[in-house]
Amino acid sequence: VKKSNVVSSILGKHWQQAPQNAVGKAFAPTNIALCKYWGKRNQELNLPLTSSLSISLGNKGAFVELTRQDGEHDIVILNGQPVASDASFYKKLVNFLDLFRPQNAMRLRADIQSNIPIAAGLASSACGFASIAMALNDLFGWQLNTTELSILARLGSGSASRSIEPGFVEWQAGSREDGMDSYAVSLSETWPELCVGLLIVSEREKILSSREAMQRTVESSALYPAWPAKVSHDLVELKQAIANHDFALLGKAAESNATTMHATMLSAWPAIQYAVPETLLAMQTVWKLRSEGLALYFTQDAGPNIKLLFEKHNVATIQSHFPQVEILQPFKKGKHI
Amino acid sequence: VKKSNVVSSILGKHWQQAPQNAVGKAFAPTNIALCKYWGKRNQELNLPLTSSLSISLGNKGAFVELTRQDGEHDIVILNGQPVASDASFYKKLVNFLDLFRPQNAMRLRADIQSNIPIAAGLASSACGFASIAMALNDLFGWQLNTTELSILARLGSGSASRSIEPGFVEWQAGSREDGMDSYAVSLSETWPELCVGLLIVSEREKILSSREAMQRTVESSALYPAWPAKVSHDLVELKQAIANHDFALLGKAAESNATTMHATMLSAWPAIQYAVPETLLAMQTVWKLRSEGLALYFTQDAGPNIKLLFEKHNVATIQSHFPQVEILQPFKKGKHI
Q1: What is the 3-state secondary structure (H, E, C) of chain A?
Q2: Can you give the pTM of this predicted structure?
Q3: Interface test with A, best of B35, B266, B272 (most A CBs within 10 A)
């Protein structure tokens, strides 16, 4: 099964349709996985070996405007700067856009405003591909539902499937070969007290893409075979924690899931270590504060940065210990960008 | 099965015997596991869940003199300093000595000279209990063989079973409930070119004993179930590497075994992280140098320090990149202490 088969199956007769609007606009939030997506069963379609569960980060994400572009080349603008056509981000984006113009007849200009550090482990590709999928839907007037958008976004980047909707989102792994049952669904629960604290310890491009890290881990880690059972366990705990607003359970399940994912990487060959010294120090501070009674947990993605998890009544304490933290309230209403 | 049953079974009628000599002396080398001992099937007897394989570090270790002591208390001297009777090291040592004086009638003075940092992940308890077992054998005149000494040393500390003999040593896990088939055997191969470089990044007492870390990992890590198969695989590779003096295979198997052991700890709850920032930096330097073609690997035990593995012809290069490294040649003949 190819990506184009999936797109054709979802768009049907609309696949060949011309844009209905002059401009397509969309915002997609980035998301942070509380239970990670780590390992693919299909590289082409970004089908995961396990389900995963994330929280969308409110107004942190990417806003896209898509317009038709005269000339021979697509134009990609990221935060006001043109992206060179030999950059890997440009190529990935054009490959994704190509899926939606089978006759290859139309060039596009994608103007992307992101308010999160690119490639610093903050799931920038998640909100990037999700916002592009949604903006295409707007531009062409396809009127797709969130399930269809989630599947299309997944073709760009697996975790983008979880960036279509706000709040808690579960990406169901599915089992079909064509992935038509592998999409994200929104959990109805909200948790206004919940806060995420971004600790950016390094804005450098990461040393290894999460795509490569994931593949190397699946292929070489002797511990990876135990990962799917860990995910199943953590998903049950996370849903229970969300249903009961049991913060200690949420924090424990999320942190333990993250450290276990990094453990699978450390056991790959060659070993993958995203932590930098500042990452270690931040983790140790979290553990120390928690041992002193503070309800503080963390998660970490395929990068050196740490995301703190805590509740609103602890904001002042967290700020006093982490002066550089950027605090987000995923359930707070507010303007994008 | 109790420790005293094992001692009685090995010493037989000699168990009640008075010392044959005025002083018992012994040296035992510390050892560094190339395939780690991580997880017990029996806490009382220190019986391991898997076999392990180590290299004894030549003249780095502990030298003990045991003498009878008048009065009511044992005396323990470590590097010239009396050890307080409420220190955990004192209690562990006295508990061990008690096994060998069932009527509890005789006090001992143990004068221990160690030339390795205590409790810094350099297996100080391994050479400590091995040297005590050997010194008791000398003091009492039991004339035990190395298999028996290995079993007795194991009762003090699991890895002490591997510190009775020099060179490459395999501790066979065994399967008997009384552990009489769980002891170390010396491999006959030597490898004079092999060097171990100690990178002491922290001499602080470690935050968590390896005993506790091991137990927490076995009980709480979702990845631990995959560890025994990893050990089986690495043991085959290590023995093949030793037989063929295949340094790249030895290094890869040892480093991968160590990072995988630390991965099982990172996936424990609460997570166990022995690395400090300097540990990370040293690991990254190793990976960078290796990517540039240098045959350099590392291993790490339950502590923050790194042990480099390389061959003699690279000594000058290693020293230029790690000015503080202490280089040991496990197979070099020489005086102890």
Answers
A1: CCHHHHHHHHHHHHHHCCCCCCEEEEEEEEEEEEECCCCEEECCCCEECCCEEEEEEEEEEEEEEEEEECCCCCEEEECCEECCCCCHHHHHHHHHHHCCCCCCCCEEEEEEEECCCCCCCCCHHHHHHHHHHHHHHHHHCCCCCHHHHHHHHHHHCHHHHHCCCCCEEEECCCCCCCCCCCCEEECCCCCCCEEEEEECCCCCCCCCCHHHHHHHHHHHCCCHHHHHHHHHHHHHHHHHHHHHCCHHHHHHHHHHHHHHHHHHHHCCCCCCCCCCHHHHHHHHHHHHHHHCCCCCEEEECCCCCEEEEEEHHHHHHHHHHCCCCEEECCCCCCCCC
A2: 0.94
A3: B266
